[in-house]
Amino acid sequence: GAVVSQHPSWVICKSGTSVKIECRSLDFQATTMFWYRQFPKQSLMLMATSNEGSKATYEQGVEKDKFLINHASLTLSTLTVTSAHPEDSSFYICSARELGTSGNIQYFGAGTRLSVL
Amino acid sequence: QKEVEQNSGPLSVPEGAIASLNCTYSDRVSQSFFWYRQYSGKSPELIMSIYSNGDKEDGRFTAQLNKASQYVSLLIRDSQPSDSATYLCAVNRRPSGSARQLTFGSGTQLTVLP
């Protein structure tokens, strides 16, 4: 299957600082990337849908000014958690949908575990 | 009613047995269905996709889809301890006013006992 690279895999930061997470599709072009958040013992919750060259679409309850998403190319999307607080500590996972494929298969990155002190 | 529902488990089966995982969905117009496996602390890994009614087999895995009943299942034959993980059912749907997206069930935790 297609490969999605996500970095960093683990980050610890102080409260009030910002953290950037990168998501890259390595061997395919992705017009659409998705950002999910997963709290312990819970399922994946979609935060936002990121389309190359346009503004991201955020799910209800997700603050777009706090979770900044940039999708500047067909292979890279970034999520910046601004002014992070302990309640933002979670497992953040990106996925990418390959351009032109049917069936809408999403390939997931390895995830980023964020701990805010 | 949740869009995608799974039995949360945990489900335990002995090694070599068949594990049966079930999922129901509420959006009748959904066309694409997926099973992902997620090991603890890792991201989901795609196991199966299914789009048509009936069975789809891939190695020890069989996905079954019944659109009339809005039901998707995953059978794992000859279960191995390495199959122990959380299995996520995902349905591709287009919520009102939104783009097409995957909606995940809460997952079923499977333990295969040696």
Write a brief caption for the model.
The complex is a heterodimer of chains A (117) and B (114). With 117 residues, chain A is mainly beta.
Name the beta content range of chain B: over 45%
Q: Looking at the chains present, what oligomeric state does this protein adopt?
A: heterodimer
Unreliable spans of chain A are: none
User: What's the number of extended β-strand segments of chain B?
Assistant: 11
- State the helix count of chain A: 0
* Helix-strand makeup class of chain A: mainly beta
Cα radius of gyration of chain B in angstroms: 14 Å
**Number of E strands of chain A:** 11
The mean pLDDT of chain B is 92
Question: What would you say this structure looks like, in words?
Answer:
The complex is a heterodimer of chains A (117) and B (114). Chain A has no helices and eleven strands. Chain A is mainly beta and 117 residues long. In chain A, strands 2, 4, 5, 6, 9, 10 and 11 form a seven-stranded mixed β-sheet that branches. Chain B is mainly β and 114 residues long. Chain B starts with a strand and ends with a strand. The A-B interface holds A 1, 6, 32, 34, 42-44, 46, 49, 51, 57, 91, 93, 95, 103-111, 113 and B 32, 34, 36, 41-46, 49, 51, 88, 92, 98-107.
Secondary-structure topology with pairs:
The complex is a heterodimer of chains A (117) and B (114).
Chain A: E1 4-7, E2 10-13, E3 19-25, E4 30-38, E5 45-51, E6 57-58, E7 67-73, E8 76-81, E9 90-98, E10 106-108, E11 112-116
Parallel strand pairs in A: 2-11
Antiparallel strand pairs in A: 1-3, 3-8, 4-5, 4-9, 5-6, 7-8, 9-10, 9-11
Chain B: E1 4-6, E2 11-14, E3 19-25, E4 32-38, E5 45-50, E6 54-58, E7 61-66, E8 71-76, E9 85-93, E10 101-104, E11 108-113
Question: What tags apply to this protein structure?
Answer:
heterodimer; A: 117 residues; mainly beta; seven-stranded mixed β-sheet; four-stranded antiparallel β-sheet; B: 114 residues; six-stranded mixed β-sheet; five-stranded antiparallel β-sheet
